[in-house]
Structures are given as C-alpha cells and as structure tokens.
Amino acid sequence: MIRKGLFIIMVCCLFNQILLAETTMVRLSAGKPVLLALKERIDAAEKQEGDLIKLMVIRPVKVDGMIVINKGADAFGRIAEIKKGKSWGRKGEFTIRVDSVMAVDDTELHLNATQTKEGKSHVGGATALAATTGILLCPLIAPTGFLIKGEAGELPVGYEIKAYVDDDIDVKVDPSAQAEDINLPPLADAGDNQAVKAGNLVKLDGRRSTDPDGGQISYMWAFESRPSDSSARLSDSETATPSFVPDAIGTYIIKMTVSDGKDESSSTCTIEAGMSDNGIGG
Amino acid sequence: MHSLLVKILCTISAMLFISSIAAPVLESFRMPQANIIYYCLKYICHQIPSRCLWICGSNAGLCARCFGIYLSFSIYMIFAFFRIFNCSKKPIVLGVFLIFPLLTDGAIATTTHYTSNNLLRIATGILFGFGAGLLVLSVKQNGGRND
Lengths: 282, 147
Description:
The structure holds 2 protein chains of 2 kinds. Helices cover 12% and strands 38% of the residues of chain A. By secondary structure, chain A is mainly beta. A 6-stranded antiparallel β-barrel of chain A has the order 2-4-7-8-9-11. In chain A, strands 13-18-17-15 form a 4-stranded mixed β-sheet, with no helix packed on it. The termini of chain A are far apart. Chain B is mainly alpha-helical. Helix content of chain B is 71%, strand content 7%. Chain B contains 5 helices and 2 strands. In chain B, helix 1 (2-28) packs across helix 2 (33-41), helix 1 (2-28) crosses helix 3 (64-81) and helix 3 runs parallel beside helix 5 (118-146). The longest helix of chain B is centred in the last third of the chain and has 29 residues, at 118-146. The radius of gyration of chain B is 17 Å and the shape is flat.
C-alpha cells in the first residue's frame, strides 16, 4: 500500500516536472535590442506614408539563455514620413518606424526604432544647369535648375536596423528550444524596373540580393512572362547580372530566384520595351 | 617626442576600443550614455550590427575589423612605450606584410560575392593594427633620423 502510494506520488512529481519544463515565463525588459533586416528594398519614390514594411529578425533574442524572439521571426514597420526630393536638386528623405515583432509564443511585441535615410542631392547639377543656360542661352530660362529634383532615398534589401523592445513584457518560452541553427532565407532583389527600346540590350542586376546569414548565394533568372511574339533569351541566366535583348514590343517580367543552398526566395523586375529607332518590334 | 606620440596614439586607440565595449554594456543597463557613445563612434565606423561583436546582448560600438585594429594598435603602442617589443629589422616590410591580409579580405569582399565573417574580420583587424603601429612608429623614427 505504502509502495503504491509512493509510486503514485513519484509519477505525479515526474509529470509535474515535465509540465513545468515545457514552458516558462520570462520577462523581456524594455530596451532590449532586436536586430532586424529589411525583407524588401524601400525606394521612397515608390512608397507612401503609412505603407507597411516587412522585416525579419536576424539574431535570436535571449533572456537568461532562453530564446524569446526567434531568428527569422517576422517584424513589421511603416513609412513614417517621406519628404520627396525638392526642386533645385535638394535631396529628400524618408523615415521608417519599426512597430512590432512576433515572440516565440506568438505574442506581438512592440518595438521602438526609427531610421531616417536621406536621398542624394543634385544641388550642384541644378546650379550648374541654371548657370550654363543663363550664360549660354538666356537669363530668362536660367531657372531651369528648378526642374532638377533631388532624390528621396532608398534602403537596400537586407539593410540592418537595431530596434528596441518598447515595454516590459512576459513571454512564454520553451527552455529547451534551440534556434541557433535556423537558416534564414536569402533576400532577393531583382533590381529596378526599366523602360527600354526594343532591340537594345537590357542588363539586369540582382547584386543587391543578400543572405542575412552571410553565406554565398546562387542566382537563377527566367522569364515569367513576355510578349507572345517574342523569342528573347536570357544570357548568363545563372549569374547576378544577366542580359537579354527584347525582340518585341511589350512587357517582360523576369523572375530571379536566389538560393543559399537551403532556402530560396525570388523577386521580379519588369522591363517595358517600346518602339525602337530602327523599327524593331514595330 | 617619440614617447609623446606613442602616448597620444595609445590613448586615442585605447579610448576607442574601451568605448566600443562600454556602449553595449551601458545599453544593457539602459543607460542613455550608450546612445552618445554609439553616436560618436558612428563617425569612425559603419557599425553594421551583424558585422560587430555582440556583448551583453547588443552590438559593440565598432565593427569587428575596427575592434581588432584599435585593440592591437593600442597594445602595440603600450609595447612600444615600455619598449617591450622592438622590431629593428625591416619594420616597414613587416608592417606592410601585416596590413596585407585585411586589405586583401576587404578588397575581395568589395569586388566579388565573397562575404567575410567576423572571426576573419577581427583576425585581420588585429594584424592590421600591429602592422599600422609598426609602420607609424618606424616612419616617425626614420623621419626623425633624416631631420
């Protein structure tokens, strides 16, 4: 009888230990840094205030040796402010604000980080144009420099932002979880969309793609769609910088897939081919 | 004059190195001074977090390369001040030899798809720091003799 009682108590203790070991609450303090990377390129010229920005955690966040935010966890932010490039070549700037990240227990944690990026200034060019036209042509049209606008700025894919946890929060964690070996997928950027003349060589550029783990990436380009009468072929389609000649007027959508050997991600770019000078495509 | 130069260089590089460690430590204690240090060091180094050493859950104020450079440069200057290490045979050749790995690593990473790692960055940075210290002092000594 006593043996049975002791056995039951031991079994209960064992179950209790197992249940306790499965999850533990830990406090994530405000101010804890979280390292994030942009999942997409941000070109302020194509964005508006309030637009969503996708980021991911590239370094696990630990408290007392336990992982509270996994490597690869999704984080979100918004375009807080955009100042477009101004006349006379004055540069613009934009600010992004990181809002939240998902913890290991799927709790949404509020983050605090802002990143301001300035564009390029073309003040020198605008002034030079105004001076040149003023001297050579006519002082009345000298203010042509007014037409030159500065750039609003852009941030490349993979750009790192250090955010901070905004409030103290309790997170349910699994003490045995190990996330060190999680492979982050490469971040693909197929480059800018282009408008070209049919018959002219188009150079594509995927060199802005990156692997957040710092590994090597391989490239694979292919037409996702092209005009029905086109038989264009991509040359060097397994390099970062392939090229092709659009042989028909229309829209070419090219998909670039990058791989780090374990994971893949893809991005597309659009090439608008118009009427060429020698009539190709027409 | 020679020891004054050594003192100044040693102080500057040691301050940078210590500040680089102090920034994440202060940040872990939520002290606002950390932000000031990060802000100041930003003028010296890009501070890309994944290319920095992480201390107390945050990135150092200098990248792994700069961290190695200022660490070894200040150590070399301390050695030079106390005359613990004196390279009298072809210091310039040895200096160039030591800075070469960092230049190679940086150049290849810039021009190709090769990506360096923090261990390599800090190792080449340490060599560069010793090499730079050797070059600076040997050039100074040679200049002094010529005068």
